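Let us begin with a simple case.
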Amino acid sequence: MKTISTGKIHSLESFGTVDGPGIRFVVFFQGCPLRCQYCHNPDTWEISSKPKYLYEPDALLKEVLRYKSFLSKGGVTATGGEPLLQPDFVRDFFTLCRKEGLHTALDTSGYLLSDKIKEVLDVTDLVLLDIKATDPDLHKTLTGVAKDNPVKFLNYLEETGKPTWIRHVIVPGLTDNDEQLEALAQFLQPYKVIEKIELLPYHRMGIHKYEQLGIPYPLAGLDPLSKERLDHAREIFKRYSFTIQ
């Protein structure tokens, strides 16, 4: 008899518009192996923390189906935290979503890759892959982990032909200089599965969560990215014929 997976869920968003195409039901998973300096969801880091919700796949699907009429041009997105810390649940949940004709998107750092995660990707229609940096030292500084695994993950997406959107946060003084941006654009250019690049400006909207958790904010005093620098970064990537958002 098959064991029913249970998902540790931090929160749900019923009308998401920034995590994949169309209007989406967004599931924020508990737990993340990275500690990105600019993370705006530090309350999702600890998977051992008591989650706000515990769901079995069919119960979560019932929540989604309440909004199905609004999701005809959208679908469901798993994000976090890092949803691939709970691969059995994501696989089972996405399988049910697909049976209902719902588009499935996975927002991930690409830090984890295993046979179980490959099963998740088999039932994933679109991957939103967060690329932090191409420079190994900078990647370690930004996230606390090495960059090797995300590269292997992207290579697997290319090997399997999985539609992919790249997400990249532009942080003043860290990832916003022209050298770093050019290096990332050059690195990504050969990958045929990349449909779009989402350049995301650094913001300070999650600072209050650090205060509530009693965690020092790593980028205290850093101003948000200016519109001028964001526009400049977009022009760099357009030179490499990427579709930019």
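The second case is a distinct protein. As before, the sequence precedes its structure tokens.
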Amino acid sequence: MVFTFSLPGIFMAQEKNEEEKEEKSVLVFYKTEGFWHESIPTGCDMIESLGEDHGFKTEITKDAADFRKDDFMDYDLVIFLSTTGNVFDEKEQAGFKKYMEEGGNFFGIHAAADTEPDWEWYRELVGGFFAGHPAVQSADVINNAPNHPTVSHLPERWSRVDEWYNYETLNPDNKILLYLDENSYEGGTNGKEHPIAWYRELDAGGVAIYTGGGHTSESYWELEFQEHLLRCIKFALDEEVSID
């Protein structure tokens, strides 16, 4: 299947029997045991709306007990939307780890990198861990992978307002999609190569994607950011999306 993107926020699949395909299923998980982001309801609504418009089923939960259920394994993608703190007990950790080890897909948004701080396996999965942030402000985002479908719609330099995380324990296997230009704002601590979005293809067959944007409610109504989220979701859901 070949996917084409037209106007911002619009995703079209070129396949005659697209309507007859079984919809993929996405779980949006937003439990917090630390900071609660006021943007979470807006983000949930936006992802649900994207699913309705672009052919995937969305379920939304903050109940970590869902990760213990047998049918949890049926999800095609799990999104951690600004989760924070220790959100899982040991059985829930085991359920999520089993899902990923059997080929599941993960997409972390913003504070997903400030979640399960004591669980080394998760820190490796998400690809980097929260190490503070300056005030919300405008910054320049550099497109490091203009041919990758998750960011190919973005300009070489993308200026936008958000809360810009600094990271520690970055996974060296991350494939960087977007960098921050620390000269364009105040408070960056990762230096010249400050990643803000990345992905990895996992040995089990799935993918792990992370994007650091999404602190503000306004983020989810920005057409370019909205399409970035949609493209990340579609990349995780369909192995046939080509990468030049």
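Residues 1-20, 239-244 have pLDDT under 50 and may be disordered. The first strand starts at residue 2 and ends at 5.
Keep these points in mind for the review questions at the end of the chapter.
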